[in-house]
Amino acid sequence: MLNRWLHDDTIRVLPKMENWRQALEACAQPLLAAGVITPDYLTAIMQQHSTLGPYYVLAPGLAMPHARPEEGAQGLGLSLLKLEKGVSFDSADNDPVDVIVMLAAPDKHSHIETISALAELFSSDEDMVLLHEAKNVEDIKKIINRY
User: Fold this and answer.
1) What is the mean pLDDT of residues 93-122?
2) Is 66 a catalytic site residue?
3) What would the pLDDT profile of 29-57 be if each residue is shown by its tens digit?
4) Which residue among 49, 66, 111, 132 is the active-site one?
5) Are the C-beta atoms of 102 and 46 separated by less than 8 Å?
6) HSE value, Cβ hemisphere, 13 Å, CA-based, for 111
7) φ, ψ for residue 20 (rounded to 5)?
8) Mean pLDDT computed over every residue of the chain
């Protein structure tokens, strides 16, 4: 199911980013290019980070940035950025972050199945190790295709 959203156009593997803002911008690019989110969506995530801290850093090395539907989500979508060298998100227990999955949903209901599939992936210790070790888009797609 996740391969409907995470595929060659929405998965990127990059060496490193200078900071969390740059990482979020890079992760957002596929969703911006597809019109799934507006620039306001990314701005909302960054503003919330500044206000609340890294609320979307879920586990060691893993972030799932998202904002409210009305903050610029035009459709349902995911993008995944895998960094070869993780970046600090100011999350003491979970830095550095090297896997970033951006979620956009246009309403409160359409993303339930997507969240469920992501939760299944995120709760698989074995697949998360493989995801953190992934070197290219093909490695990531092999993992994603199981969910």
Assistant:
1) 94
2) yes
3) 999 999 999 999 999 999 999 999 999 99
4) 66
5) no
6) 21
7) -65, -35
8) 97
